[in-house]
Write a structure and sequence with these properties.
It is a single chain. The protein has about 325 residues and is of the alpha+beta class. The protein is built from four helices and 18 strands. It has an 18-stranded mixed beta sheet that branches. A hairpin with a 5-residue loop joins strand 3 and strand 4. The radius of gyration is 25 Å and the shape is globular. The chain starts with a helix and ends with a strand. About 5% of the residues are buried.
Length: about 325
């Protein structure tokens, strides 16, 4: 009898503790604790300074909301990312695994800054190798079921671009390979609608397999597909701050889907197949390619079995 009373009493105490824990998790006190821990983790793990006005976690709804989020590197006053609000939907059981698997991320009025790197400056490459110690270089896997960037802006140096993204899936895997002193990255972005400045692209899909060395990115396999373009490539981007690159590329362009702002003087229907080399440095580039088109429709006539070579140059290339 005493044992039964003890068991019942223990269950009551455990129930009270569980209820109190769940109430605390749903309270503003837990939000403030989680906000403080997130800021501390970002600084200790990645040397990032994170500022946010408010973090609200709703465990039962499996949702977290961050208001007025901004991110920058600790030693660099220039921002990396800013958004009025970021909403993250998750599954509680997925948070217990080493990888990160999220249902959806929505960023309202996000701004992303990409600064051209200067030799020896505080760029992304130097941050990855110098500020992230070897013990911190094991990165998690990330999977997101849907991503939406609403009314966004991309800053590249002093140039602003309008950016809006609605993606139905992202997979990102990034790990450090100490034997070769590089980061190995596998990335897949699927079924994405992209608005960039005045052009809209539908159904964009990107797959990339690359190695990130200290002074270059080596793309072992790169695939891009959209309503306009289907392309594959392999190549190297050396000294990312100087944007010096060379790629072997091949694929096809669907002429009827080329955005109107780029279509002036082009055929209105058909497709063009290409294979060649794209190289450049900074804003200068050189494209050499062979061109084949089984059929192209212009405003007043049709061209069939078209074959040619193309050389496009900008700047001093």
């Amino acid at each position: 009898m005493n044992l039964r009373k003890f068991a019942v009493g223990l269950l009551v105490v455990l129930g009270i503790l569980l209820a109190a824990g769940l109430l605390w998790i749903e309270s503003s006190a837990f939000d403030r604790w989680a906000q403080r821990k997130a800021v501390e983790y970002a600084r200790a793990r990645w040397n990032l300074q994170v500022q946010l006005q408010k973090l609200h976690i709703q465990v039962w709804r499996q949702r977290a909301t961050v208001d007025a989020l901004s991110v920058r590197r600790v030693q660099d006053p220039r921002p990396i990312f800013r958004a009025d609000r970021v909403t993250i939907e998750f599954r509680v059981y997925d948070l217990l695994t080493p990888s990160v698997d999220l249902k959806e991320i929505v960023a309202e009025s996000p701004e992303v800054w990409i600064q051209p790197e200067e030799p020896g400056g505080p760029g992304l490459s130097s941050w990855l190798w110098q500020e992230a110690s070897p013990a911190k270089r094991r990165l998690f896997d990330l999977a997101v079921g849907a991503i939406r960037l609403q009314e966004g802006t991309l800053h590249y140096g002093d140039i602003r671009h309008r950016l809006q993204i609605a993606s139905r899936g992202l997979r990102w895997r990034m790990n450090f390979v100490p034997q070769r002193d590089l980061y190995r990255i596998q990335m897949a972005l699927r079924d994405t609608d992209l608005s960039y400045d005045q052009a809209d692209y539908r159904g964009v899909q990107i797959r990339a397999d690359l190695d990130w060395y200290r002074q270059k990115l080596e793309f072992r396999d790169l695939k891009l597909e959209s309503s306009v373009l289907q392309a594959t490539g392999r190549g190297v981007l050396e000294h990312p701050g100087e944007a010096r690159y060379r790629f072997d590329v091949s694929g096809k362009i669907r002429l009827a889907h080329v955005p109107l702002r780029y279509r002036k003087g082009l055929p209105t229907a058909g497709e063009v197949q290409f294979e060649g080399e794209l190289s450049g440095e900074g804003s200068d580039y050189l494209l050499r390619s062979s061109i084949v088109s089984p059929r192209m429709e212009l405003s007043k006539f049709i061209v069939e079995d078209f074959r040619s070579s193309l050389k496009v140059r900008k700047g001093q290339m």
